[in-house]
Records
---
Amino acid sequence: MQTSQHVLFERSEMKDRHLVRKRIREHIADKAKLPILIFPEGTCVNNTSVMMFKKGSFEVGGIIHPVAIKYDPRFGDAFWNSTKYSAMTYTFNVMTSWAIVCNVWYLPPMVKEEDEDAVHFANRVKAVIAAQGGMSVLPWDGGLKRKKVKESFKEEQQKKYCQIV
């Protein structure tokens, strides 16, 4: 990765975030460079939904070329449920599957609107991708797969539920 134009960073390090944002802006400004491929979810899910996008990808400006990707599990399932299968079992299942079929849709380019912040722009792009792939939109990120749910998030959901009841 270091021989190509990858932009590597440590998400938990605040200094890295600012440096990455600067490097991406410089990359976008240089028309001689190839576009950057970003996976704003930060993790894969089970092919049924699109999780919250990290806003950093949408703060730097430039044109976003959304791509919707959805695996067809009829011949082999590319999704790795790490709570159910070990890495070795998953690798074996993928390598011995008949085929891994993937539908890819290249969607029209999108640009951040003047009155739109990065979060709303990310949500708009996410909604377009989810609609194309026939997937649902989730308001949380992939961190819930590996971390405990924050108490504040639980309380917020409980308050919403109480208002409904």
---
Amino acid sequence: MPHINAAAALQISMLLFALPAQYFISQWYGTDSAERIQITERLIIASWSISTRSYLSLDAWAGRLKLWLSKTRTSLYVELLILHFRNWYYGEKKTKSGDNEAKLHSYLAESAHVHSPKPEYIKFRVGQVIIHRRFGYSGVIVGWDVKANTPEEQLQPRYPPVKQDLKDTPHYRILINKANGFGKSTAYVSEEEITVITGLEVVYHPDMETYFSGYDGSKYIMQPWLKKLYPHD
């Protein structure tokens, strides 16, 4: 219930008695003593009645309370709507951002799904050292796809009409040996572009330890997390 301090009570009292006072002054003159007393009594009774109905009545205060609660509920409802909209907007934005990031990492043999079973037509394995037949750089395989898995806008310039069939052949993600001085650090190539070589243990790349724990004489040994993704390699 709203709190009324002394100053507010005084202001209310002055307002309540302003109109009766005006009436009293206008009626005072031109009447005898008995009439003035009666008029004063009527004014006091009327003012008390108005005050009682306005500030001492439970119904009046109940009405004020209902009005205050309705405003409070409206304000709270608006705040809840705003909060709901903010949560929806930023949650939706975050979800879309997360979806885009997940989609980005599903390309170029970087998908986190388990590659099992492994089709027999995929010749090479994760951890094998390769050399690119045309560009001559060496590197190590860190992932594969059963066919090219990259945005279409990147495939079109890479595979002209005469080589469109290469899009449906196995593709491998390669960490390029930095010792070759090649400009790129990674590559995504079709199976026909590479050949496996042995006896080359040292492949210099800053991410080697992330993917591999050592070399067994024929290929690099996958870290446990990578082995889970390629259990048959």
---
Amino acid sequence: YVMLLTLSPYTPTYRDRVSPPGVMIRPYLHGFTIAFNVSKRSTWQPYVDSMHRFLQAYDDKVQEEKNIECVAGRYFVQGGHESEEKKACRFKRSLLQSCSGLGDPTFGYSRGQPCVLLKMNRIIGYRPGAGVPVSVDCKVQKGNESDLRSVDFYPGNGTFDLMYYPYYGKITHVNYTSPLVAMHFTDVKRNNPVPIQCSLKGEGIINNVNNDRFLGRIIFTLSIGK
């Protein structure tokens, strides 16, 4: 009990061996296979509904009310006592452009060009990239590379801006919303399962551990029928 009293509820006591971040995707409904037929709305509508629910916290008005405009390209380090509430930088869903669900409320699924969102797991105090933004790259995990002919990344060229880091924990960083990178798969082979691997790229990132498919990368399958 006495030892527990020495632990801070705000930050981990030891952070000298912080693991690089894992990643996760949205939508995530039935495991790591996104399968639908373009001509059958009922097969892709659940993915669309899931995306809209997930992005509610990123609505522009919500972000403008709760969070602040930050200086891009540098870490947002906040001083003061560790118990003080921390400010959070705005991440508006409009930054996701074609994958925001604003211009196209179906996120491309109705055209067989699905959007998939990727986010890094939160790690208290972690500053990814050692001063250079971490980016995302996608390729065919196994098989013919020509099955994946075109991917667009948002925002910008698919990077996690430094201003969203470090994260100070859910107790004090109450309005924090994790930054996202949207992958818009605009040209994927139809009627054939295509295994995709999307990886983080940057200083200090580990993405090649064979027994951990979520550390610095994620593997999922796109199966788009007519």
